[in-house]
Amino acid sequence: MNVTFRQLKVFEAVARHLSYTRAASELYLTQPAVSMQIKQLEEVVGLPLFEQIGKRVFLTDAGSELHRYARNISQQLDEAREVLEEMKGIQRGRLNISVATTAIYFAPTLLGAFHKRYPGIGVSMDVANRETLLQQLENNEIDMAIMGQPPEELNMVADAFLYNPLVVIAPPDHPLARQKNIDPVRLADEVFVLREPGSGTRSAAEKFFSRRGVQLRTAMVMSSLEAIKQAVQASLGLAIVSTHTIKQELELGRLVVLDIKTLPIQRQWYLVHREDKRLSVVAQSFKDFMLAEASKLLS
Ligand code: PGA
Asked: Best mutation site among 199, 221, 240, 243 for ligand 1, i.e. most ligand atoms within 8 A of its Cβ?
């Protein structure tokens, strides 16, 4: 059946209005042009689609049947147009995210893969500690954040996408480095190089150890993970960090992970945005990408 989209479109309008005149004015056509299209369509189909009784137009059985299909086809075309428009949006959009300080050790890898898939998207990535991320979300300054613990506030959507185990690190020559199955209580005798207040890692570690009756003693406070790792290597104290941050130092034998009972502290990385945030096409694609690909890309 050699029916054109144009014929179906005209037919659908006449069938919906049951009027050639109204269909013509909706489609910006003359009434004879509409009649001509319908006549041609009836010839192709081989059946009458309308019948006229007096001044009123009715659909024949064949017309009703074809109307059902024509409606579906026109809905599908609208849908296809929307999807293609969205794809144009993806090619040009911009993504605004903030990531927790610790996440700099893996976020660029994920953004690199995302960028490869959607090269036209510009990305702006801010790095801040947990407390700052919460403020940025609260002020609606960013599309979404990557953080190590979902906010307690109910008006946020948080999706876990990756494990984030926290461990205690020490220099290789530390007396605890060769011991196995160390009781966490033993850490009360040690001093720590801790992250700044407001750090998610710090608050998770303090909660974890205080539940086991251990108050972490602070030797120094540093907001930079690179500085913390240097300080531990220089034997200024132990530190509690995410395993994402120490791959190189472990490979090079510059740091060791202490074998402490009940550790690692099991945490996860979350993609977080405001519940009332209308995600842009780009932000939604980034979210879909992260939830589907992140753990595969970093395994
Ligand atoms: P932080 O956050 O870098 O602020 O410690 C990461 C986390 O919550 O694990």
From this structure: 199
Q: Is the pTM of this model over 0.85?
A: no
> What number is the average pLDDT over the span 207-235?
94
pLDDT at 114: 93
User: Cβ(147) to ligand 1 under 6 A?
Assistant: yes
Identify any residues that bridge with 240 across adjacent strands, giving them in sequence order. 168
Q: What angle do CA 226, 228, 233 make, to 5 degrees?
A: 95
pLDDT of residue 205: 94
pLDDT value at 289 more than 90: yes
- pLDDT reading at 220 higher than 80: yes
- Residue closest via CA to ligand 1's atom 9 equals 148
What CA–CA distance (Å, rounded) separates 9 from 7?
5
Distance 199 CA to ligand 1 centre (A): 5
